[in-house]
């Protein structure tokens, strides 16, 4: 294979790569300033957060109850450290 042909193929590949990068980067950039971010209506945010499904409710309640029941033991142990 001729050296010039290989060089032309590599150049073509490089050129296509950078052209593709230019086209791909022409889209909207991420927000770089707070003023670029759309403000969410507080009422909509409250409604959305109220509709979030609680996962592992029973597990969380069990852990909280366990911590509450063990609190006196922690206090006793901490007060009697030597």
UniProtKB/TrEMBL annotation:
Gene Ontology terms, MF aspect: DNA replication origin binding
TM region(s), chain numbering: none
GO BP term (any one): DNA replication
Coiled coil: none
GO cellular component terms given for this protein: nuclear origin of replication recognition complex
Domain of life where this protein originates: Eukaryota
PANTHER family associated with the record: ORIGIN RECOGNITION COMPLEX SUBUNIT 2
Protein name per the record: Origin recognition complex subunit 2
Species of origin: Gossypium tomentosum (Hawaiian cotton)
Highest classification ranks of the organism: Eukaryota, Viridiplantae, Streptophyta, Embryophyta, Tracheophyta
């Amino acid at each position: 294979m001729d050296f010039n042909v290989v060089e032309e193929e590599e150049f073509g590949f490089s050129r296509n790569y950078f052209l593709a990068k230019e086209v791909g980067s022409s889209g909207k950039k991420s927000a770089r300033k707070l003023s670029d971010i759309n403000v969410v209506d507080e009422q909509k945010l409250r409604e959305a957060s109220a509709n979030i499904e609680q996962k592992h409710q029973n597990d969380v309640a069990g852990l909280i109850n366990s911590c509450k029941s063990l609190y006196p033991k922690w206090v006793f142990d901490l007060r009697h450290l030597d």
